Amino acid sequence: MDVVKVTAKGQMTIPKKVREALGIRAGDLLRLETEDGQVMLSRLPDTEFRELAALEGTLEEWLSEADEDAYGDL
Fold first, then answer.
1. Residue 54, CB half-sphere, CA atoms under 13 Å: how many?
2. FRET pair for 35, CA 20 to 30 Å: which of 41, 42, 59, 65?
3. Counting beta carbons within 10 angstroms of the beta carbon of residue 22, is it exposed (0 to 12), middle (13 to 18) or buried (19 or more)?
4. Are the CB atoms for 31 and 41 separated by under 8 Å?
């Protein structure tokens, strides 16, 4: 078991042995799922990444300065 510390910004470092086990590299997207107080971490397959990238252009309406002010600290 590894223990990590969460920063004030909600960030943490994924331990090297976990990154290696999942094949996680810088820039990869990860999926986090929660159930019964536990978190499941998995690497997002490249096919799902391409699908999300295709949707990204449709979400530009949510990238306004007002939205950032209202939701930027979530």
1. 6
2. 59
3. middle
4. yes
> What region, left, alpha or beta, does residue 38 occupy, with left being phi > 0 and alpha being psi -120 to 50 degrees?
beta
At position 41, the amino acid (one-letter code) is L
Other CB atoms within a 10 A radius of the CB of residue 44 amount to 14
Prediction pTM value:
0.55
Instruction: Report the DSSP beta bridge partners of residue 30.
Output: 43
From CA 49, how far away is CA 27, in angstroms rounded?
11
In single-letter form, the type of residue at position 8 comes to: A
Q: What is the DSSP string of 6-54?
A: --TTS--PPPHHHHHHHT--TT--EEEEEETTEEEEEEPPHHHHHHHHH
